[in-house]
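pls design
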């Protein structure tokens, strides 16, 4: 089969690989029909994720059709259309019993990280009964690709961890796909303000169309003053970091209101400074999280009810044979205006 391989730091290649086989009785083999590229994949290629070794098939998102199931799989059969969660969960370990599926002792975020992933014609998915979801007949499968990772990540790591509340002021730093997913799902809780901050005017315009009440281009270094003007000098009750670089984490600390929460989503490959000399008396909390995907069933229902439209995040389409072009497009979003790309087998 064809698969996208992380070959070495800064490099990847489309190669021929053997079709995966059942290893554990709880495995399933899925024929991937649609997948996508995540910002985390770019972090892997940059060398920011040491758990992912060269030679790995990348990708942790997608939908497909069951090709084969292990003898212990009871919820799925050959031919079922399924959503592949980016997180594999055994459902039995201490972390899974606490719904911290991302820290499952035999799973977690392993697809496209510690085991081969979804940017291929086939993928082996461990713990299939708890890591796959049935796709209803007639559902928009491109929309559901966004439920593998991006929407639950924005929702769980940003909105839920940030305790977005009715009438509150929310600032989201980073108007890329994850920041926009947080923007879409924050609206479940009717905050009074959603302020989107980025360096890219096109993405800020998209954010305004998605429901941001205000947008700020932070290139001039005046983002803090702009947010304070919008919040009567208080700052934001929830600040969501959706980039993963030291400068944006520092900006979060400057924007947070007393009693507020900084919710980190970004994948950080470098150390950041924590300014306790200014924050020690502010009654704030800082949260970190890897998505658990515990909210996928709820998000399924919101998409089915048309309360949220994940297809708004999709800007480009490619075939698997053109995945290197897809990476170039996704990685150069300022020029290409790319958000999420769909890759079809």
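designed seq:
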């Amino acid at each position: 089969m064809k698969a996208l391989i992380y070959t070495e730091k800064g490099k990847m290649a489309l190669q021929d690989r053997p079709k995966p086989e059942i290893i554990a009785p709880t495995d399933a083999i899925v024929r991937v029909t649609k997948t996508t590229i995540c910002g985390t994949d770019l972090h892997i290629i940059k060398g920011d994720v040491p758990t992912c070794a060269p030679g790995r098939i990348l990708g942790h998102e997608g939908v497909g059709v069951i090709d084969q199931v292990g003898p212990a799989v009871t919820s799925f059969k050959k031919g079922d259309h399924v959503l592949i969660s980016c997180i594999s969960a055994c459902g039995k370990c201490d972390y899974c019993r606490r719904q911290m599926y991302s820290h499952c002792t035999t799973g977690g975020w392993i697809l496209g990280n510690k085991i081969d992933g979804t940017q291929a014609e086939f993928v082996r998915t461990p713990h299939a009964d708890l890591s796959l979801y049935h796709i209803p007949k007639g559902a928009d499968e491109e929309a559901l690709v966004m439920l593998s990772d991006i929407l639950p990540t924005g929702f769980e790591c940003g909105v839920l961890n940030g305790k977005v509340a009715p009438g509150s002021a929310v600032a989201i730093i980073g108007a890329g796909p994850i920041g926009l997913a947080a923007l879409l799902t924050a609206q479940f809780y009717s905050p009074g303000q959603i302020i989107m901050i980025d360096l890219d005017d096109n993405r800020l315009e998209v954010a305004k169309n998605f429901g941001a009440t205000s947008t700020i281009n932070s290139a001039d270094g005046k983002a803090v003053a702009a947010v304070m003007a919008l919040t009567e000098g208080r700052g934001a009750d929830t600040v969501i970091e959706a980039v993963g670089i030291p400068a944006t984490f520092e900006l979060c600390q400057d924007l947070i209101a007393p009693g507020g929460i900084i919710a980190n989503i970004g994948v950080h490959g470098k150390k950041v400074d924590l300014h306790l000399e200014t924050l020690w008396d502010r009654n704030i909390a800082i949260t970190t999280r890897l998505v658990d995907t515990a909210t996928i069933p709820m998000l399924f229902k919101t998409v089915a009810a048309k309360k949220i439209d994940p297809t708004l995040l999709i800007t480009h389409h490619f075939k698997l044979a053109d995945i290197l072009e897809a990476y170039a497009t996704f990685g150069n979003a300022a020029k290409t205006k790319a958000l999420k790309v769909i890759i079809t087998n």
